[in-house]
Every structure is written in C-alpha cells, then in structure tokens.
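Work Package 3 committed the consortium to producing structural models of liganded targets before the mid-term review. Because experimental data for this complex are still outstanding, the team generated a predictive model from sequence and the ligand definition alone, so that downstream docking and mutagenesis planning could proceed in parallel. The input record is reproduced below exactly as it was submitted to the modelling pipeline, together with the SMILES string for coenzyme A.
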Amino acid sequence: MASFKIRLITPNDAEKIVMLMKQHWGSTRVVSRGRVHCPEKLPGFVARVDHKSVGLLTCNINDKDCEIVTFDSASEGLGIGSASLEAVRKVAISTGCKRLWWITTNDNTHALRFYQKRGFRLAALYPNQLEKSRLLKPEIPLAGVDGIPLRDEIELETTL
Ligand SMILES: CC(C)(COP(=O)(O)OP(=O)(O)OC[C@H]1O[C@@H](n2cnc3c(N)ncnc32)[C@H](O)[C@@H]1OP(=O)(O)O)[C@@H](O)C(=O)NCCC(=O)NCCS
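The resulting structure, written out as tokens with the ligand in place, is given here.
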C-alpha cells in the first residue's frame, strides 16, 4: 500500500491548489456561511504520495475557532483524510482554538459519516443556504453527490 506524507502548505503551493480546486470542485472559490474563501490563500496541509500531491486540507483560524474550509483526498482509504484531520486539530489546539468546525452540504453523506466517526457533532442546519451561496458563486451546481439536490448547509463541530 502507498505511504503518504503530510506537510504544511507553503506559498509555492498556490498554483497547485488552484489546479486541484478546479479539478475537484470546478471552481477556485469556496462559499461557507455566506463568506467567499480563496483556498490558495489559506493555511493548511498537503498530502503527498511519491512526490505527487494527493490530498489538501485548508483552514481558516479566527480567534478561538478553526474552520476547515476545504478537504480533499484523491487517494481515498489510505488514511490521508484521518491524518490531515489530526494535523489540523493539533495546529488549532496549539494556536489556542477551542472549536474545530466545518460546513458541508446536504448531499455529502460520505463526509457526514467520515466526520461523525471522528468525533464531530451536528451543530446547525441552514436550510436553503445554497440559494444564497449561488448569488456569490453562480457555478454551484443544482445537484450534488449521487444527484441529490444541493440545498442546505450543515455545520459540524468538535470542541478542542
Ligand atoms: C472525506 C475524505 C476527505 C476522506 O479522505 P480519506 O483519505 O479517504 O480518509 P481516510 O483514508 O482517513 O478514511 C477513509 C476511510 O478509509 C479507511 N481507511 C483508512 N486507512 C485505511 C487503510 N490503510 N486501508 C483501508 N482502509 C483505510 C478509514 O477507516 C475510513 O473508513 P471509516 O470512515 O469507515 O473509518 C475523502 O473521502 C474525500 O476527499 N471526499 C470527497 C471530498 C469531500 O467530500 N470533502 C469533504 C467536504 S469539503
């Protein structure tokens, strides 16, 4: 099985992050809770296998809260997601954060399973939030994973 390494994002990663975002999400921008993020400008972690970037986690630290903004693994099931989550948890704790949180959409049942199995709890539901997000990012599709209509934001959190 391929082994991977996780390291902090550096300024040299910006171009790669833009490419990865386009490939995985069809856009370089992320909207959560009515706010537009540019992941290439955020801190976080890159996972690599054989010098190839296969995972990306970006986060936004705001006072005592750390939001996971993007989280992608192109080599699922190797433990990259779990290790990236552990890495951001450690950084958040070391910078004094008390809460690690994350927004997903109603269609992403795999991610809901993944996070809940790793200590996150459902904290809030924002019905029809995607209508507002589309005003900021019109490229958000109408259907998401498995063709499920993309409508609501779900907030998950864990205390640190
Ligand atoms: C959610 C996501 C980031 C998880 O990444 P991942 O690299 O697959 O994560 P892991 O490998 O740590 O864990 C995935 C599963 O594989 C299992 N796994 C981990 N290491 C393994 C190994 N060596 N062999 C077999 N299975 C393994 C884990 O146990 C886990 O299963 P579980 O949830 O039943 O515990 C990834 O699925 C993804 O990119 N999804 C699409 C984008 C997305 O939805 N992102 C989140 C919203 S922004």
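Reviewers should note the following from the model. The mean pLDDT is 95. These observations will guide the Year 2 experiments.
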